[in-house]
User: Fold mitogen-activated protein kinase kinase from Rubripirellula amarantea.
Amino acid sequence: MSKSRDFLGPYRLARLIRVGSTAEVWEAIEENSQERFALKVLKESLKANREEINLLKHEYTVAKDLASPRIIKVVEYREDSRPMLVLELFSELNMKQALRTGPESLAFMLDKIVEQSAEGLYYMHTKNWIHLDVKPDNFLVSREGVVKLIDFTISEKKKTGLGRMFHRVKLAKGTRSYMAPEQIRRKVCDERTDIYSFGCVLYELATGKVPYTGDTPNDLLNKHLSASVPSPIVHNDNVTREFADLVKSMMAKRPDDRPPSMWEFLKVFRGVEIFKKRPRAPEVSVFDNNSSIRAPDDMIRKGGPIDDQE
Ligand SMILES: Nc1ncnc2c1ncn2[C@@H]1O[C@H](COP(=O)(O)OP(=O)(O)O)[C@@H](O)[C@H]1O
Ligand SMILES: [Mg+2]
Assistant:
């Protein structure tokens, strides 16, 4: 491979972490400092796509406003041979991948994971940003249960006053399994929209199952709009009544019936046990077969890309 293909600006590509629908995520080393970063690079076929470039720039605008240990840091936006974001490198394992091996992969440290995820969202909301794509794929988790929120592609500034009145209907965006009714209906969204989606995430973390499934995309959306809110206890009877009630309240159809803020959520959550009996750590850790960050002398490109888009 030629030198130019191995580099984007000063960043030497070390390993492909993941290929999504629009971007590749690479582990890379900055030549001068020898520091390691994650690069979110637009796919070759989209490198001149205005819309995708703008989304990436938008993600930079959002992320540079956020400085919290619970949120992935963004270093810069660059256009070398391809548009890209330079990000702090962290555990590449997202919650969805962990859940795929079963909820027990995280259950033994779920209180920490939930608290950390909630703190990331809380912080984002204090900066008046709404994430709008809260789902397990967009939280990175480390072996120690440290969580960082990622992917601000469709995040928006919270609308207040006149902004709420003159809200323009945009394309409904989000991920169907986790979308709040007001997001589906393209109404004004606020932090309670993220609280709904986060409720769906908690449901899945506690049970290994998404709260609603449908035979068709529309069927699924309709369930978010009108099906009765399921209890996580149905799929896991080790979940406490208090936690189940909290999750159900987050998934209320009307924003007014949900906890009003992540602060309120955290206050209640800190006084509640998730499980009746504390789950044990599985014998084989999900962090062992899903190699997290490798040693510097192990920087050869291995295996193919993992594409686990919905
Ligand atoms: N900073 C990072 N460090 C390590 N892995 C990351 C990082 N950012 C993203 N990833 C990996 O790449 C995946 C896709 O990133 P994301 O920003 O969500 O892109 P997309 O817009 O394609 O969903 C994540 O789920 C994670 O596995
Ligand atoms: Mg994502």
In short: Confidence is low (pLDDT under 50) at residues 291-310. The chain has two domains: 3-88, 93-279.
